[in-house]
Design a protein that fits this description.
Helices cover 19% and strands 34% of the residues. It is an alpha+beta fold. It folds into 2 domains: 43-242, Beta Barrel (Thrombin, subunit H), CATH 2.40.10; 248-336, PDZ domain (Pdz3 Domain, Roll). Belongs to the peptidase S1C family. Residues 1-20 form the signal peptide. This is Putative periplasmic serine endoprotease DegP-like.
C-alpha cells in the first residue's frame, strides 16, 4: 500500500511539472503567426531562377526583386550561361530574363524581366541589423518551389559583421567583400540569392554563394549586406580585389585550338587538344564547348581569347565545358606560352 501511494504521488508530481513546463498555447500561436506573416509578406518580393544545368551543376537559384521595373539580384553560376534564363515570380508565372551585369568579386548577377514589380526590397547604404538581432532567411534551397509554391524560411540571428576574401584556388574567387554572418543554415544548393530579412521586413542582405573551407570541411552561412547590393545595382562596386590588382596577367597557354571557320563570334568549340599540354592532361576533348574560363562566361571565340589573356602561368583555374548534354567543371593549370 505504501508503494502504491508513493507511486501515485510521483505520477502527480511528474504531471504537474509537465503542465508547468508546457508553453502557453496563446504564446505559441502568436509566435507562429508572426513568423508566418513575415515570410508571407516577403514572398512577392522573391523569385525562383532557373537556367542551364547538368550532372552536379545546379540549374536553379533564388533571387530578390530590387526595383519596380523588374530588376532581380541573384548569385553567379553556370546556370546563367545557358541559352535561356527563366525567372518565376511568386504567382507562378515564368518570365524570360536578361542578364544586365555580373561581378566576379562579389559573385552577383543583375537580371531583368519585362514586368512591373511593385513589391520589391528597398536597398540602403546604411547597415541593417546588429549582432544578436532576429532574422529570417527565405530561399529556394534544394528547389523546393517550381511555380507558385512559397520559398522555405529559416530563422536565426546575426552573429557578426565582417569581411572576407575567399578563393576557390589562386585564380577563382568564391567571394570577396563585406558580409553578415548568420547562425541559420543557408549554405545549400539553390539558396544563393535568397533574402535575409529583419523582423520588420527590412532587407539585411542576400544569401551568398556557398563557401566551403578545405581545412575544416565546414560551410559559411552569410549574407551580402544591403549596402553592397546597392553599390552593385548602381554600378559602383569594384571589379578587382587587392590580390588581383597586385598580380599582372601572364603569357598563359592551355594547349587548346578552337574552331574558327565562322570567325571570332562563333561559339568556343575545341577543334584540337595539343599533346603534353594542360588541356590534354585534364582530359579536354575535341568538340567540347567552353562555357566558362577562370570565372568568366565564354560565349564566343573572342571571349575565350580575352579570358585566356588574363590567366597567369602556374595558377590553377577552373574551366567549364559542355560535353554532349553534360556540363563538366575541371581544374586546369596554365603553362607559359612557348615562343
Amino acid at each position: 500500500m505504501r508503494i502504491g501511494l508513493c507511486s501515485l504521488v510521483l505520477v502527480c508530481l511528474l504531471v504537474s511539472l509537465s503542465v508547468a513546463q508546457e508553453p502557453s498555447p496563446k504564446v505559441e500561436a502568436r509566435e507562429t503567426g508572426f513568423f508566418q506573416t513575415l515570410a508571407t509578406e516577403a514572398q512577392p518580393k522573391m523569385v525562383k531562377v532557373f537556367g542551364a544545368g547538368a550532372g552536379r551543376v545546379d540549374s536553379f537559384a533564388t533571387g530578390i526583386i530590387v526595383s519596380d521595373d523588374g530588376k532581380v539580384l541573384t548569385m553567379q553560376g553556370v546556370f546563367l550561361d545557358g541559352r535561356e534564363v527563366r525567372v518565376v515570380t511568386s504567382d507562378g508565372v515564368s518570365h524570360p530574363a536578361t542578364i544586365l551585369s555580373r561581378n566576379r568579386v562579389s559573385q552577383m548577377a543583375l537580371l531583368k524581366i519585362e514586368r512591373g514589380t511593385p513589391d520589391y526590397f528597398e536597398l540602403t547604404s546604411d547597415p541593417v541589423g546588429e549582432k544578436g538581432d532576429f532574422v529570417v532567411a527565405l530561399t529556394n534551397a534544394f528547389k523546393v518551389a517550381d511555380h507558385e509554391e512559397p520559398l522555405s524560411a529559416t530563422a536565426g540571428v546575426i552573429s557578426l559583421r565582417s569581411s572576407i576574401e575567399a578563393w576557390l584556388n589562386k585564380r577563382d574567387l568564391a567571394y570577396a567583400g563585406e558580409l553578415v554572418l548568420i547562425d541559420c543554415i543557408t549554405s545549400n544548393p539553390g539558396a544563393g540569392g535568397g533574402a535575409v530579412i529583419m523582423g520588420d521586413g527590412r532587407l539585411v542582405g542576400m544569401v551568398g554563394k556557398v563557401i566551403n573551407s578545405s581545412e575544416t570541411n565546414t560551410r559559411l552561412n552569410y549574407a551580402i549586406p544591403s549596402s553592397v547590393l546597392l553599390e552593385f545595382v548602381n554600378g559602383t562596386l569594384k571589379e578587382e580585389t587587392q590580390k588581383q590588382t597586385a598580380n599582372a596577367a601572364g603569357n598563359a597557354d592551355l594547349g587548346i585550338a578552337l574552331f574558327k571557320l565562322g570567325g571570332r563570334s562563333d561559339p568556343a568549340y575545341i577543334d584540337r587538344v595539343k599533346r603534353g599540354t594542360p588541356a590534354k592532361k585534364v582530359g579536354l576533348r575535341p568538340d567540347d564547348m567552353i562555357v566558362q574560363l577562370g570565372g568568366e562566361k565564354i560565349a564566343t571565340v573572342k571571349a575565350y581569347e580575352q579570358a585566356l589573356s588574363k590567366l597567369r602561368p602556374g595558377e590553377e583555374i577552373f574551366i567549364i565545358v559542355k560535353r554532349g548534354r553534360e556540363l563538366k567543371r575541371i581544374a586546369i593549370t596554365p603553362v607559359e606560352k612557348k615562343k
